[in-house]
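Action item from last meeting closed. Structure (259 res):
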């Protein structure tokens, strides 16, 4: 498949390659991590992935792992995020990121990455604070999407990441907002999941909020609720979530009547 120029999709006009790339960045829970060995050879492994509010990947890794030692010596990496599914694996979309990783040694920064990562991977709390484990933040230089046959996109970091300008209060209040949604609005979370992916079964919880959308998880399932436009304040968040809930209820009503 021929790669497309930066920011240009090689597909039908109706196909939104950038939206698909952002969706993969926010929903894929594990990826193939490629690092560089001391012998300058490529080395691939598997890691769990979460994202920071701006979409930058977060990794939790042990220094006992070879890939961690590689990154300590050479921070360059590539990360493949593949959706997977039934049938031909190459028919499903996947996103390749290139960039570099930096360990979060600052306690405040580490706590921020830890909160985001454990919201997506709560079982990792069992070992996240072991002495050999550390959180790493990936800085994306470039992203390449292969969306399946005839669909591709190539994007610089500024296009695929989420701008946090003007959203400082929203980011600071994320933990409080997530706790409120998960305690008081479980029915709405199920509505969002069902409206976006037909995955209404299971107990859904909110795992992340950023100006571009809301992340939901239920067991091994993930859903990204993309907002219709940037949301940068708590008041705007309340408004758009109420609108999405009303829309999901209206769309579900005809199906309920048919049943």
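Sequence:
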């Amino acid at each position: 498949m021929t790669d497309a120029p930066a920011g240009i999709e090689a597909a039908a006009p109706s196909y939104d390659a950038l939206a698909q790339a952002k969706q993969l960045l926010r929903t894929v829970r594990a990826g193939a991590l490629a690092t560089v060995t001391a012998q300058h050879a490529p080395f691939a492994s598997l890691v769990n992935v979460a994202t920071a509010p701006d979409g930058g990947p977060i990794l939790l890794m042990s220094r006992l792992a070879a890939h961690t030692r590689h990154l300590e010596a050479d921070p360059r990496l590539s990360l493949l995020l593949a959706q997977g599914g039934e049938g031909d694996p190459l028919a499903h979309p996947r996103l390749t990121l290139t960039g570099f990783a930096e360990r979060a040694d600052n306690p405040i920064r580490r706590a921020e990455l830890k909160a985001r990562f454990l919201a997506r991977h709560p079982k990792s709390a069992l070992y996240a604070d072991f002495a050999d484990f550390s959180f790493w933040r990936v800085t994306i230089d470039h992203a390449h999407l292969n969306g399946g046959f005839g669909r591709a996109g190539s994007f610089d970091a500024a296009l695929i990441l989420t701008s946090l300008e003007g959203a400082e209060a929203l980011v600071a209040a994320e933990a409080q907002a997530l706790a409120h949604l998960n305690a008081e609005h479980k029915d709405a979370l199920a509505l969002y999941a069902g409206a976006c992916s037909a995955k209404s079964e299971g107990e859904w919880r909110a795992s992340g909020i950023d100006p571009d959308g809301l992340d939901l998880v239920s067991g091994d399932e993930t859903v990204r609720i993309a907002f219709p436009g940037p949301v940068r304040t708590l008041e705007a968040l309340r408004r758009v979530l109420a609108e999405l809930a009303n829309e999901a209820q209206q769309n579900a009503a005809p199906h309920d009547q048919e049943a």
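Note appended to the action item: The chain has eight helices and eleven strands.
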